[in-house]
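Hi R.,

Here's the chain you asked about this morning:
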Amino acid sequence: MSDLRGGVRSVVQRVAMTLSLVEDFAGSLVSTGVALTSRLPRTLSLLDRGLVDGYSAQKVAEATAWLSNEDSLVADAVLESRLPKKNSTQVRKAASYAGKADPAGAGKRSDESRNRRRLSVTQGDAGVASIEVVDGPAEKVNAAYQRIHREAKALKKHGDTRTMDQLRADIALDLLLSGKGGAVERAEVFLYMDMFTYLGLNDDPVTMAGHGHIPASLGCHIATGPNTVLRRIITDPLSGQVQDLGRTRYRPDAAMAEFVRVRDRECRRPGCDRAAQACELDHSIPWQFQGETSVADLVTYCTRDHRLKDEPGWVYHLTPDGTLIITTPTGQTHISEPPPLHEPRPERSA
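And here is the predicted structure, written out as tokens:
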């Protein structure tokens, strides 16, 4: 349609006027339509069959917009099995894996995006305003949030009556203005990368807990930083699941907690992407009902989902391999599997 009617901009303006939309949103709709009908045929098929919604399809189109048509078709084929029954946040993370179709391009795109970083201030009504770091380095933004969140929890634990949202906002502003927040704790992000990527022998995307996939070049940049701590993680080569975590300096209880957080990466409620470092550990079988403090009975939940678990009618079952089965009060079952650290490998290569 855009080719026949004067180009994309003309079509965007017509769509915006016809549907009474702002031009940016209309442009996004048009771009998504063009992408689905030209270079993302499998995603379009999923949309037609009701396996993804329009907003999720839009996220796929945005995540692959920088790829060539040929690489888009490759990414589309890879994503076909990753998108069904996922919410928009999960789709965004899955779509970021499209960088594997063009590792060099993904690294260049990441550099360009990080070079656009800026601080934005928006003035609101009733004496409020917002400040935002736009396109900041993912590892710094996530680490900063974890520090603020932990300091907020520390203040809350000591009786502060402010809500967690209020505490996080106040601490962030206090840190910007004076460099002082609440209790100082180590801030960290978890990166998952295989040894071959770390050694520069392949360009497989790296995963940052709470964020999603990042290019191998960026992962290696972070992993080789002066304050980075490397840990050995042993996986089952056939499934990619964590089997053991190298440790030499932690007490057993601390090592156990770290193993669970490394295994889970994020809150285990399907669809929640709160990083495991900011989550709480909980027994699958409550302690008062003979639940054990072991990796076979511990799982990570954010505060909100931890509370949800204790609501009447919710049933949680954790299997020995870390798979969490959640049954809702209406009888619906949801399965949450700990994400493998690598793609399952054929037995002959293992």
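One quick note: Residues 138-157 form the longest helix (20 residues).

Cheers,
M.
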